[in-house]
Design brief:
By secondary structure, the chain is an all-alpha fold. It has helices at 15-41, 46-67, 83-101, 103-109, 116-127, 129-144. The protein has one domain. 71% of the residues lie in helices and 0% in strands.
């Protein structure tokens, strides 16, 4: 309510928004391909690499959802202010946990139990999108001047 209304003739997909979407998508691709390849190179079974990459892919989308709340403002500015987004992410984390740990869903999705270290690796890989998106927003703000 502190900002003037958006011009109704201006579309949602502005140049800055498209730039952020491309940045996030390209980074997500690089991170997940790197994670998958790194796990295979480390001798992990392909099934394990697939489940860990799936987890990283989903988590990176959660981080991007928080980052995309604003095309200009930093994620650090009231990061959990959107209650509905927080609830949606918690719900999705519950579903993700069920897919990974519930035997019926493990069979359907081809997943299996992951360790805490696996989760740590996936979260760390996914979290790399945050500084990339913050840098992209900084560049967007500087170019808008």
């Amino acid at each position: 309510m502190r900002q003037p209304p958006r011009d109704p003739r201006r579309g949602i997909f502005t140049r800055p928004v498209i730039g952020l979407m491309l940045t996030g998508g390209i980074w997500s691709t690089l991170v997940n391909l790197g994670l998958f390849g790194g796990l295979l190179a480390a001798g992990r079974p392909v099934e394990h690499a697939m489940v860990l990459t799936f987890l990283s892919l989903v988590l990176i989308q959660f981080f991007k959802a928080y980052s995309f709340r604003s095309e200009r403002h930093s994620l650090l500015r009231r990061p959990f202010a959107n209650r509905w987004l927080n609830l949606a992410i918690l719900w999705e984390l519950l579903l993700l946990g069920l897919i990974i740990y519930l035997p019926l869903l493990q069979q359907a999705f081809g997943t299996y139990d992951l360790t805490l270290a696996d989760w740590g690796l996936a979260v760390a890989a996914a979290a790399t999108v945050l500084p990339v998106m913050e840098l992209a927003k900084l560049l967007t703000r500087r170019l808008a001047r």
